[in-house]
Amino acid sequence: MAAAPTPPPVPTTLGELRADRHEHRTVKAEVRGNLLAALRTGQDPFPGIVGFDDTVRPELERALLAGHDVVLLGERGQGKTRLMRTVVGLLDEWSPVVEGCEINDHPYAPVCGRCQALVAQRGDAVPVGWRHRDQRYGEKLATPDTSVGDLVGDVDPVKVAQGRTLGDPETVHYGLMPRTNRGVLGLNELPDLAERIQVALFNVLEERDIQVRGYNLRMPLDLLVIASANPEDYTNRGRIISPLKDRFGAEIRTHYPLEVSAEVALVAQEADLVADVPAHLLEIIARLARELRASTSVDQRSGVSARLAVAAAEAVAGSALRRAALMGEQTAVARVADLPGVLGSLRGKVEFEMGEEGREEEILDHLLRVAVAATFRAHLAGLDLSGFTERFTEGGTVETGLMTSAHELLDQLGAAPGLAQVLAALDVDEDNVSPGQVAAAVELTLEGLWLTRRLTKDTIDGRSVYGG
Description:
Layout: H1 14-19, H2 27-41, H3 56-66, E1 70-73, H4 80-86, E2 94-98, H5 113-122, E3 128-132, E4 137-141, H6 148-151, E5 153-155, H7 157-161, E6 172-174, H8 176-179, E7 183-188, H9 195-200, H10 202-205, E8 223-229, H11 242-246, E9 250-253, H12 260-270, H13 279-294, H14 306-327, H15 339-346, H16 360-380, H17 386-389, E10 397-400, H18 406-413, H19 419-425, H20 435-451, E11 457-460, E12 463-467
Parallel strand pairs: 1-8, 1-9, 4-7, 7-8
Antiparallel strand pairs: 2-3, 5-6, 10-12, 11-12
Helix pairs in contact: 2-3, 12-13, 12-14, 13-14, 13-16, 14-15, 15-16, 16-20, 18-20
């Protein structure tokens, strides 16, 4: 949970601000100074960003320290938007503005005609307001119908109707960029802007000013621009024009988590879970996402978003909560049996190759089994599980499924030598363990034994019968 903002500073006029010895810094100078302070004190400058410590973060830190505008290149679901939003945390917590200014002019250096006239007329009596850094972030999802007026500005017919002449700069209605003046501007999916709109950004990124409908305006904007794009579109053959690319100081490639542990941490951080989802189940989901990204049956040009794993974790939690309600369980705990049922809801998050049409469910089922087997080997491969297998040597069976309660499953299994080792290997606290957690560990063990061909399994109407 983010800390509550501190109260704004005391000065309310330009004179009081000068007396308080306030120092005016540009946006990029603010970011540079606060980033250096965070690095020197060991604070995390990008909280909530997982898996980029040795790759993306150093590149972004270098770009921000250099004062560069940045393009983040990566496939969908790699955290580009989250990353650009965290940069706002590197701004000063409170920043002074001329009270009532549409483009957030600093009282020391006003750039719009209204504020310049106000400072000239009232001097140190000019009223000063304070903006929190959270208010200094503007974001635009670039779409083909975005206009120059949306980003830069246009003539306001209402102001003209009120009696101003068309030649009066006061008739201009400012777009998102000038309204984000002295802040951070995020442009998502930059190549989706029409070429004429991309041309309109030239002056903002290079000369740092704006042009509106031929008005003789020179309004130096103080902006840090961070854009995102798909690498396939951000090429000369894509939908980006080369002069715009040239105006960004840094291009930084993002990526999906490189390690399973980072993927698990990301899912645990982002998923809103309505039931207990054991760590080994989150790992299975993370491994499933990674298998999909490596599969030749999946169109890798569109990527496999981290949102797939997050949605899967939330779906299995929902499945566990439903079972608990129907079976009268006090604690809802997700199990391996919940996983197959959620695969269908994930198909919309994966683009399959054209040749795989009709085999989507089969591919997902196969990759899920691969993920379960890998998780089983990672945690339980070195254990003596003969206590489980001996339970089935004389024809015994254990039946489980979506609507099998934890108590029913454990009663069927009975005493299983080695269960304590399994719980320890899965980091389950034996002193504070619920029947649902034990059942989840048992299901992983039984499924892993079947996948490693040490146990038989039959699936009948969605119910799995081990042994027999």
